[in-house]
Amino acid sequence: MHLHIEGSLEPELMFDLAERNGVSLVYDSVEAVRAAYAFDDLQAFLDLYYQGMAVLRTVDDFDDLAMAYLRRAHAEGVVHVELSFDPQAHLLRGVSLATQIEGLRRAMRRAARELDLSTALIMSFLRDRPAAEAMQVLEQANSHLELIDAVGLDSAERGNPPGQFAEVFARARDLGLARVAHAGEEGPASYISEALDSLGVGRIDHGVCCLEDPALVARLREAQIPLTVCPLSNVRLKVVEAMSDHPLPALLDAGLKLTVNSDDPAYFGGGVLDNYLACHEAFGWDEAVFKGLARNAIEVAYMDDARRLELL
Ligand code: ES4
Ligand code: ZN
């Protein structure tokens, strides 16, 4: 449920697409790209993430990117994928919204047919760009609304509070779209409350900083607001020093509705299964804990009720 499809771009495909589109990369090998993936914080990652995705130009590129990821997810036992994408990052490079959505949706349709994977599409706004730009993108998306399931909010968190996007999210609600937002990844716990209050989100992406505020933890527990936690991402971006310091066990003890997700699998050390395995190794969780996490995801995912019943 928390996957940036552009963050699933493996260096091998990055080179293939660069060649196909005549885009030059600053790296001369796949190994050099991987070696550059040592981040001090979210911004250091975002700089490489936006640079890497510049190879995406055509419908086929978005189709190939998504299909490669959906095949890998299927191979590791994933049965439902919610792909989030960052339309502004591509619009700013002259790639139309129609191109992006057509490519992603083509892969999603094929995955349903060939892999029995259900999927949903989340259009995320960049919080470090003006809210007026997000509103323009939402208006542009009006002609593709049946192809979008939810809107999200991502990119650089600190100094970019959710409240700035209140109007955009109110408009998304009026258009019948579900809403999620990154909050409490690097930013303060107050951004989590703000995302709930001013954006009306139904889920919080990350949310790990909620433990700073006991009243907020109580609220999240009482309302059973889902948190899409990404442990390997938090280690790679130095939100925590190591898996052994990760707050997941404390969040679980607090009775929160948790799911474990991969965020940007090509950049942070793997997919959902790798994140599950890292939790098993660090926390010694048994099968019952993982079944509970997977069940939480199925209960709150954007899928139709027939699919939910089939999976539960
Ligand atoms: C992201 Cl890890 C993370 N945080 C915020 N925005 C993002 N976009 C892609 N990955
Ligand atoms: Zn994320």
From TrEMBL:
EC id: 3.5.4.2
Annotated positions for site Important for catalytic activity: H206
Active site: E185 (proton donor)
Protein task: Catalyzes the hydrolytic deamination of adenine to hypoxanthine. Plays an important role in the purine salvage pathway and in nitrogen catabolism.
Pfam families cross-referenced by the UniProt entry: A_deaminase
PANTHER family, A to Z: ADENINE DEAMINASE
Cofactor detail note: Binds 1 zinc ion per subunit.
Name of the top EC class for this enzyme: hydrolase
SUPFAM superfamilies xref list: Metallo-dependent hydrolases (SSF51556)
NCBIfam families: aden_deam (TIGR01430), PRK09358.1-6 (NF006850)
Reactions listed under catalytic activity: adenine + H2O + H(+) = hypoxanthine + NH4(+)
Recorded family membership: Belongs to the metallo-dependent hydrolases superfamily. Adenosine and AMP deaminases family. Adenine deaminase type 2 subfamily.
Entry keyword set: Hydrolase, Metal-binding, Nucleotide metabolism, Zinc
Domain Adenosine deaminase positions: 1-312
Cofactor: Zn(2+)
Binding site for substrate: D264
Entries under InterPro entries matching the protein: A_deaminase_dom, ADE, Ado/ade_deaminase, Metal_Hydrolase
Organism: Modicisalibacter zincidurans
Binding-site list for Zn(2+): H2, H4, H182, D263
Name of protein: Adenine deaminase
